[in-house]
Design brief:
This is HTH marR-type domain-containing protein. By secondary structure, the chain is α+β, with helices and mostly antiparallel strands. It folds into 2 domains: 125 residues, Arc Repressor Mutant, subunit A (Orthogonal Bundle); 86 residues, 3-Layer(aba) Sandwich (Aminopeptidase), CATH 3.40.630.30. The protein has 10 helices and 7 strands. Strands 4-5-6-7 form a 4-stranded antiparallel sheet, sandwiched between helices. It is elongated and about 80 Å long.
């Protein structure tokens, strides 16, 4: 079965980046173990930043790493339990804590540097492609600093509303009620001149596609005598080429 997420293109970029992250994290943790070092990849940003600049306030550390304050606090507690980092009160503001590497943490970083050199070489090999991943990530992060994803999405919605264009939300549903199945049959009969029964039978699966809540496309997946899956798909003329065809096809491929 082809990968539906891959076919989703740019829409699934977050999912695919997370997939790469999970692969690198799992292999990274395994590599540290093969080198006889007890270390987890999630510890890297804190130990690395503090090895370059220390002591460092928690807010400054969070900004350097790009973690939320609660996420960083949880990570610091874990590292403190392992005696890899510690804190001192800020001399100018006793309410603040400044983090630093302990002697054990510094020794661990010293052990890790040759390992990081190898990891860096592997990552260069992975990312030095026709379209350089690291360069693309840098450019994307700069754009997000200028204007966040949320700000851009809200601005696009406002722009569409100003043009009287409501955002088009497409959903596909495997329908089971007689009323919904009759709509599926009616759309296919109108567009393809194929007369399906108004109620599903003989292992037929009826799909209904909606755009902004309006039923505008349908498909029927059925099995032949040779037990092969075939389907018919139709979209009403005024809603064609708006993504309904792809959405229906993806839903059917997932069912096969």
């Amino acid at each position: 079965m082809k990968n539906i997420i891959d076919d989703a293109g740019i829409l699934a970029i977050g999912t695919r980046l997370l997939r790469i992250h999970d692969l690198l994290r799992a292999d990274g943790n395994s590599f540290y173990k093969t080198q006889g070092i007890e270390f987890e990849t999630k510890w890297f940003p804190v130990l690395y930043v503090l090895s370059v600049k220390s002591p460092l306030g928690i807010m400054d550390l969070a900004q350097q790493i790009g973690l939320s304050h609660p996420a960083l606090i949880a990570l610091l507690k874990e590292l403190e339990k392992r005696d890899l980092v510690d804190s001192v009160k800020d001399t100018r503001d006793e309410r603040k804590r400044n983090m630093f590497l302990t002697e054990k943490g510094s020794d661990l970083v010293h052990q890790l540097r040759p390992i990081w050199t190898i990891i860096e070489s592997v990552l260069v090999d992975l990312t030095e492609n026709t379209n350089n991943l690291l360069k693309a990530l840098n450019e994307t992060e700069e754009k997000l600093k200028e204007s966040s994803f949320l700000q851009r999405a809200e601005a696009m919605v406002k722009e569409k509303l100003a043009k009287n264009e409501s955002p088009q939300i497409i959903t596909v549903k495997l329908v089971s009620t007689a009323e919904e199945q009759s709509i599926v049959s009616a759309i296919i009969k109108q567009e393809l001149a194929i007369d399906y029964p108004s109620v599903s039978r003989n292992n037929n699966y009826y799909y209904l596609a909606f755009i902004n809540g309006i039923p505008a496309g349908s498909a029927v997946l059925s099995a032949t005598k040779e037990n092969q899956s075939v389907f018919d798909l139709a979209v009403l003329p005024s809603y064609q080429n708006k993504g309904l065809e792809i959405a229906l096809s993806n839903a059917i491929e997932a069912k096969k």
